[in-house]
Amino acid sequence: MAAMRAILLLDDPLPDRARLADELRARGFEACWPEAPAREVEALLTVTQPVSAELLEAHPALKLVCVAFTGFDHVDREGCRARGISVCNVPEYATAATAELALGLALALLRGIPRADRRLHALEWRPQAGGELRGRTVGILGTGRIGCHAARLFQAFGARVIGWSRRASAEFEELGGTRVEALGELLAASDLVSLHLPLTEQTRGILGAGELARMRQAALLVNVARGALVDAQALHAALRKGAIGGAALDVYEREPFAGDPPFQELENVILLPHLGFRTREALAQRWSVTLENLGGFFRGQARNLVA
């Protein structure tokens, strides 16, 4: 019988550790966790926990960093490359889940749903008029898979969609979206801006004070992508002084969000604890692909490599 390969799990892609260990063992992996690590680790699994150069150096037998997530900006890919360590991810498991949340947050902002809910829970009957998506211009910032899926959902509600990305997207244009050449043009033309960009050195802080100032005063911002795409202090200032109409945030530069800046004090902000990918369907798909990535790599059939 082949020896079990040690795999270090930095965080748990399933809530049940016993089931997690059993399913990995059935595929030839012996799970261990940071509180009791094994020295001869050949694979490392992370969801959102950082993979640093120090961590890589501590495991000289490491061959694969398996990211059970779409984003992999928390992995030191240069360090992996220098040590001959491969990196794989799960690229499409949460496309529908994340796009649907963006739509839900847009509707919640337009109709003032969270505020109305809080008031009626306090037995305060204060119905107020909201707005409709129909007829509005939605700016899709990032026209990859999730951005295109979100664009279709917004279109189904009667919105006009425009998009900006660093590279042109044939899929976005085929679905009827209009590409704009400049980010500032999209911001100035949109009633609602929905962020769907990956976090890279080029996109970090892409919405700063100057960019937020280009937005319409009543415009809304939805971020289900990465917190660090937006200058949080500049966004808080813009919301506090009413320079934009409102924001819905599911992601933050530092998670868990602990109130810096104090978005929780603002009435025109919806805050969620990074729910974009957290549906039962998406999490099941993520785990299935993660197992396929692990097994395939050690069989010589690597999948979803990003480094």
* Radius of gyration, taken over Cα atoms and rounded to an integer in Å: 21 Å
| Strand arrangement in the largest pleated sheet | 8-7-6-9-10-11-12
Q: What fold name goes in the CATH topology slot of the largest domain?
A: Rossmann fold
Assign the CATH superfamily of the largest domain. NAD(P)-binding Rossmann-like Domain
CATH architecture of the largest domain: 3-Layer(aba) Sandwich
Query: How many helical elements?
Result: 11
Distance between the termini: 31 Å
Question: What percentage of residues falls in helices of 4 or more residues?
Answer: 25-40%
Which CATH first-tier class of the largest domain would you pick? Alpha Beta
Number of spatially distinct domains: 2
> What can be said about the biggest beta sheet?
7 strands, parallel
Specify the overall morphology.
elongated
Mean pLDDT: 96
Low-confidence stretches: none
Task: Count all strands and give the number.
Answer: 12
Q: Which percent band covers the strand fraction?
A: 15-25%
Series of secondary-structure elements, N-terminal to C-terminal? EHEEHEHEHHEHEHEHEHEHEEH
Helix/strand/pairing category: alpha/beta
